[in-house]
């Protein structure tokens, strides 16, 4: 179980996410891909020192934001960081999830297999239902 404060986890995540090509803006990291923007977010709890690790996929065809906050992302996921004992594993699993959702082709396949997260915006589902992709 990670016992880091929000500020400590942010500092520990910085070098890992920078190496992976993410740019930091406050408590968000963004990585631009051809048709999506990947977002990694550290959200502080309003009730105490706890924090949450959120991942998001912003579909460029559905908006114009360049550095979207995670709550504007069309597809979202929360990492249960409490089950981890080190930051390396958090980063590895987070990057794997983001990599599995990082383009329209992958998202379309996940949509067709009914494997998108429950926190997928209706707008994204409608788009993925109708979008044509080239294999």
Give the key terms.
single chain; 135 residues; alpha+beta; 5 strands; DUF4304; DUF4304 domain-containing protein
Give a quick rundown of the structure.
With 135 residues, this protein is an alpha+beta fold. Helices cover 34% and strands 23% of the residues.
Write structural notes for this entry:
The chain is an alpha+beta fold and 135 residues long. The protein has one domain. It has helices at residues 6-19, 87-100, 104-112, 122-130; strands at residues 23-25, 28-32, 36-44, 51-59, 75-79. It has a five-stranded antiparallel beta sheet with strand order 1-2-3-4-5, with helices on one face. A hairpin with a 2-residue loop joins strand 1 and strand 2 (28-32). This is DUF4304 domain-containing protein.
Gross morphology: elongated
Strand proportion: 15-25%
Q: What is the H-and-E element order?
A: HEEEEEHHH
Major β-sheet profile: 5 strands, antiparallel
Q: Distance between the terminal alpha carbons, to the nearest Å? A: 41 Å
Strands, total number: 5
Number of helices: 4
Number of domains: 1
Could you say which structural class the secondary elements and strand pairing correspond to? alpha+beta
Oligomer: single chain
Note poorly predicted spans. Answer: none
Spatial order of the strands forming the largest sheet? 1-2-3-4-5
Helix content: 25-40%
- The overall pLDDT, averaged over residues, is 93
Spatial extent as radius of gyration? 15 Å
Chart the SSEs and their pairings.
Layout: H1 6-19, E1 23-25, E2 28-32, E3 36-44, E4 51-59, E5 75-79, H2 87-100, H3 104-112, H4 122-130
Antiparallel strand pairs: 1-2, 2-3, 3-4, 4-5
């Amino acid at each position: 179980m990670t016992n880091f404060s929000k500020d400590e986890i942010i500092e520990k995540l910085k070098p890992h996410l920078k190496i992976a090509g993410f740019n930091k803006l406050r408590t968000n990291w963004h990585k631009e891909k051809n048709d999506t923007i990947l977002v990694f977010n550290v959200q502080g709890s309003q009730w105490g020192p706890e924090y949450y690790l959120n991942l998001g996929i912003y579909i460029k065809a559905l908006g114009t934001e360049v550095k979207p906050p995670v709550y504007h992302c069309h597809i979202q996921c929360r990492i249960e960081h409490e089950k981890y004992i080190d930051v390396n594993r958090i980063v590895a699993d987070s990057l794997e999830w983001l990599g599995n959702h990082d383009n329209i082709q992958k998202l379309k396949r996940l949509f067709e297999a009914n494997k998108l997260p429950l926190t997928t915006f209706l707008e994204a589902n409608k788009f993925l239902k109708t979008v044509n992709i080239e294999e």
